[in-house]
Amino acid sequence: MSESPHCIRLRGPWSAEPLAQLAGSDTREVLRQRVNMPLVVPTSWGDSFHGRVRFTRGFHAPTGIGAGDRLLLVVEGAGAETTVRLDEGDLGTLKTDQQIAEFDVTNQLSARHQLAIDVDVPLARVQAGEALIAEVRLEIHTADDG
Fold it and tell me: Which of 86, 77, 130, 128 is nearest to 104 (CA)?
């Protein structure tokens, strides 16, 4: 019987940067003021900004990764077009209806990483107060997990 993977939740601190603003949104300056304010995932906006936002977070590589172990980066609940990058390299894109994505980053391990998640924030999600990203985590699957 295999055990559950060890999870490291990447809840914060995150920063946010507006990349593109959709027509009809006049609160870009409100969001710009949040760039230096740490965010915690899951997160949602309390204002009406909608458009493309980049969430970034640095993290150290987990220790104790053995030969045959795998490290997955998991992004859940984006609910919008979402692009995931690790250290400037594209990992992939989640489509609007895709609730979870797993990226095997085992071969990309180094001491320090920069994660960037670009989300196309639809106005309806902002107005509903829904989380833009539900969870981001690293999962360590040991060779013994099977």
Answer: 86
